[in-house]
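Encode chain A's predicted structure.
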Amino acid sequence: MTHTDYSRTGPPPSPWVGMVLLAGVTLLLTGGFEVIEGVVMLVRDDLAQATADALAIPVNFTFWGWVQLIFGTVSVLAGVGVLYGKFWARIIAIVIGMFSAFSNMVMLPAYPFWCAIIIALNVLCIYAVAAHGREIRA
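Encoded structure for chain A:
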């Protein structure tokens, strides 16, 4: 008796599917990091390595805390959508990745190491989702 696999109807997915999965998971991680960063800014703004005046856009840490909290939450939701192969999630992931990278560039003087890591992860997510996001459905 032979077993036939009917679950695949098309060609096998490319290796880039792993990169898109990594992007979805990375969105979850960076979103979680941004939520943590936002909460820290809201609760303990004295932990920053610079004052609000030293930032590229001199706005108080409460404002940036809320920005990070919102971006982080939307990033987590987009990450879940990317893992399910949703087109809307890919668009949101690219937009949120761009805004998140920009907001972390602004915060770079206050949290240099942390922000540099998040910017690098955002660039990776943008590339993977834009170039190979549709392959996740396969």
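Residues 16-137 form one domain.
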